[in-house]
Amino acid sequence: MAAPETQIRVTVNFFSFFKELTGCAVWAHSVPAGTTLAQLVDLAGTRFPRVEPMKRSMLVAVGVEYQERWYVLKDKDEVSLFPPVQGG
Amino acid sequence: MAAPETQIRVTVNFFSFFKELTGCAVWAHSVPAGTTLAQLVDLAGTRFPRVEPMKRSMLVAVGVEYQERWYVLKDKDEVSLFPPVQGG
Amino acid sequence: MPIQRQLVLTTERIDEAALLGRRAFSPGMGAVVYFLGVVREMENDAPIRAIEYEAFHKMAEHQFNLLFDEMAKRWPVESVRLVHRLGIVPVNEPSLWVEVTAPHRAEAFAACQWLIDQMKQVVPIWKKPVPV
Amino acid sequence: MPIQRQLVLTTERIDEAALLGRRAFSPGMGAVVYFLGVVREMENDAPIRAIEYEAFHKMAEHQFNLLFDEMAKRWPVESVRLVHRLGIVPVNEPSLWVEVTAPHRAEAFAACQWLIDQMKQVVPIWKKPVPV
Hints:
Helix content of chain C: 25-40%
Largest interface: C-D, 30 and 30 residues
Radius of gyration of chain A: 13 Å
Strand order of the largest sheet of chain C: 1-5-7-2
Number of helices of chain A: 2
Oligomer: heterotetramer
Shape of chain C: globular
Helix content of chain A: 10-25%
Strand content of chain C: 35-45%
Distance between the termini of chain C: 48 Å
């Protein structure tokens, strides 16, 4: 019998109008070890269909750093998904 | 007998280190009608030899406007001769 | 030389007079450039009452500090101070105050403009118009 | 629209706080850029105590006004205020204060820099270092 797939816990923060689109500020979710940010973004798009069309322009951070989509998630990573920034 | 040449009166103000070079702030001078600024600048260079080498970079105004060297002087014109400006 | 920096993200009004009073200025510095961004009465051609600013606070601070580091590498800036107001900012009140001091004018202007341009690319702050 | 303008050539200290207090600002304006030029401790690699500024006052005023006219043609600037101190300006004190307000940041920065660049070409003001 195959060993059960190891799961890791990540939290996903939504900011700006992504909160309205998802109806959610923080989404805690378990994903298989080895999951990339790109895959997590896809999962978010499936779970929250209204952010799906935003995937192209979406900015993605882990902790306080921007990360590329090929970034491999670690347990307890705090991911943030948000639209283009508009400070000033 | 030829009519005496008509003379006009002009004043020449010196600014910045031109005052030191000439030892003079305001030079009142008579010149023949038809004299151009270029000719006046030459006269100033002859009268005050230490400004002679400054003729190239010298700025020249009549009243509060810069004027080209071909400008023909009028009676009572107030001419100003000064080095490149350095405000700020 | 490390750049002197002050960063404030606050829901309080930006008090320019108090900020001026706290300016430190060494005798080698010849230029100070300030920028003040003010909420305009129209946003996307519609009249508004205010703009509400939201920040991902801890990431915004980190990203500002990365920008300050990069600025110090590019220009001989002595100090940078930046205040960004958050929450509801009424029309005609400032949302952003930036001050850059440097030995000469050109570098102070260049650094200040670069910082604001970069901020608008990477610092996680968003705005939402509040209709009249 | 005519540009609002204020020009002061003075031997008195530049009072930034007082100048800030007198800023008029209409609701269409989104950007204010200030520049402050400060006397540095070195001039041409020699230490100085101050710089003495001399102006051909009435021509300086006229030339500044020509620049303000031209600025208004080039950019949608709402107001410009400029104070140039004359006489002895000690090290670490400002000799020049400029403020430009405009609807947007880019034009406010461009207009302010252009004005200072032009001033240094045409406005009859000169400086003389005062050695320590």
